[in-house]
Amino acid sequence: MGTSPATSDDGQELPVIELVNVWKRFGAGSPSEVVAVSGVDLKIRPGEFITLIGPSGCGKSTLFNMIGGLEPCDDDGSILMRGRVQQDGELLGKVAFMPQKDLLFPWRTVVDNAILALEVEGVPVRQARERARAMLPDFGLAGFGDHYPHQLSGGMRQRVALMRTFLFERELILLDEPFGALDALTRAMMQRWLLDVWAEHRRTVLFITHDIDEAIFLGDRVVVMSARPGTIKCSETIDLPRPRDASIVTSPEFMAIKRRLLGAVEEESLKSFEAARADARRVGA
Amino acid sequence: MSGITRLTGRGCGSVCLPIVMILVAAALWELSPRVFKISPYYFPPLSDVLAEGWRIRTIVLDGIVRTVTETLLGFSAGALFGIACGVLFALVRPLERAVFPLFVVSQTVPVVAFGAIVIIWFGNTIFAKVVIAFYLTFFPVTVNTHAGILACDPQKVALMRSFGAGPAAIFWRLRLPSALPTIAVALRLGISLGLIGAIVGEWFGDTVGLGVMLIQAMYTEAVVRLWLIILCCGVVGAGLYGAVAFVERRLVWWRSDA
Fold it and tell me: Which residues in chain B touch residue A178, judged by CB atoms under 8 angstroms apart?
């Protein structure tokens, strides 16, 4: 038989990450218990680009923090990496994590911000800087290596943060609405650019967004999360051909997928909106 | 090239204007006693003060050197101690709860009340003045270091943790640098307080220093000399503050919110 550690018994490659019945309850047992994430099952296969979409406040970020190892999931579920259960904090340093904000350090240049994770890993600074400099053109930052964050535009800062994430060479990249704060034009450009970089540096990506077009345009699979408590409502494989260009968003295939997903997403958005209104009424009363 | 033009272009705003204002203030000081016929006992004209300064220039210079030395020693010790305490309090919360209240109480005791004790402990040495300058400096530095380190963006801490960084890496690469702008504000405050500490320290007995000259001039009602020493204290204070601000702008040029 001789199954290698990267494959399961049936010969298939093991998922990079697998969530099994993952829950997150805050203030468990108290009357103010909040269930942020409930019973999430999700498998991410190597090289896959998964987009996760859901209404705001649905627990997407909590889910992300758990996959990044920043918060443990509740005891009744587990997170597996390449088939191995990960204990509390074990995932720290194993997943390349990029939060919504660029979180650049203002006292560091572009290159030195990009090598932050490498420094933490103990890569000699000179060598790390060389690797970062070689990547600058790919990230549209050629000639900006010695600039400081305050000298850059929002789109450029976001690309520095992405470069920092890519330089931290881990199988799985977590991106939490990386383009959320950008204007529509810059965002569309960044999406196409991200696909190019992804095609070149081939990694597994889990990408959070609240923009349906973005989710379909980027993903191999779109996963829709429900309103709080966040759980996976449905998932749809996107078989649009790659490489994808901007015109694809107006194609009938794209529109058909969007129509199907829009129904699910809007239902959930409405639910979370109603819940927020109910909360507001309760607080007001 | 562009750097030079920008420097000179900006220079006239940030250098010329203060110089003009200083000259205007000097002219007012010189002219108002004469125009309004104010008795020199209350307000001697600037030229009298400067002439007195030139007459006793060696004593004044010795005084300045001594007081500045005391200030710098006390300030340096206070800054280092304050940063160390602020860091400790921020990282070890039980220590903060136990010791920080003592720090606050220590600052509510007027420094003058401590002066006599300090003299008994350290004698009439330069060390006694350094201790008083230190005593006034360390507290604001402690408070700001503590606050600066605690104000570190938790999302950035989470990012560092996701890279697998331990507490030491997070401290040196993130917490301390992000606290530097806040610490720098306290250092600017600390240098001014350090000078006050040195001058007050000299009142408890010494033979050299601006504080000594101030007390002597007061007892002998040497009004012109009194104004001379006030002027010297102002110049020294502004110089020290300027030096700290200059170093700060060079080293800590980013703002904490950026």
Answer: none
